[in-house]
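>> Question from a student workshop board

For tomorrow's exercise we were told to take the sequence and the ligand below, predict the bound structure, and bring the output to class. My setup keeps failing. Could a helper post the expected result so I can at least see what it should look like? The ligand is cytidine-5'-monophosphate.
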Amino acid sequence: MIPKRLRILPPYPPVVVALDEPWNSAKIWVDRLKGRVWGFKVGSILFAERGPTVVEEILNSGARVFLDLKYHDIPNTVQLSVRRAVSWGVSLITVHAWGGHAMLKAAAAEQKPDQRVVAVTVLTSLDQEDLKQAGVLGDLEGQVQRLATLAINSGIAGLVSSPHEVADLRERFPEATLVTPGIRLDPGTDDQKRTLGIDETLRAGSDLAVVGRVLTMATDWEKQWERITSSTAGMS
Ligand code: C5P
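>> Workshop helper replied:
Here is what the output should look like for this input. Compare the format with yours to find the bug.
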């Protein structure tokens, strides 16, 4: 069974906060935003430090967990890894669509109605030149579409892409859960190459915007949170 499209209901903005930092500082974000945010994204930085206890700690705060370990391995390894993550109670889990049909199908088999696997298409930090260096000679948008189609046809509930591909993916896959990193409120010069504002991203059809350094590195975080929530008002 393929889980239905994720709908984030008020009072939460359709936002997940990426905790790409050690637990002593990540915990401050959990304390600040608990009750105000749908969930937190745990990636390899935090998971390497705390393991599954970090999932439990965040769930105890009342927030949901998006486990972003981007599994990409043989089908059996990925299936058992997803099964384990599902048993911890996480709401979203990432795999790489590049893992191929058998791997995606194995991951998809572990989904539950409120526990979705989402497949990363092309990382937001990559551009056309990066793809060329990796031997992908077609255009980036075509590569995102191919990987997205492969994932959806394998039973995966959702897709991760840059904001630039959201409108096209929404049109092609109306029932898919679309998760979108690469959000910037002001033009930036960091490692992310395919970025866009949060309101444009949600209007294009994203279900969940991933907010990371744009919030966690802000000099005045409360002001930045206010900017984020006011630009998402009425969109959940
Ligand atoms: O701080 P920033 O907004 O760049 O954070 C984006 C987050 O989304 C990071 O945790 C990164 O690992 C994750 N991500 C991404 N691109 C993808 C999938 C996940 O940037 N395609």
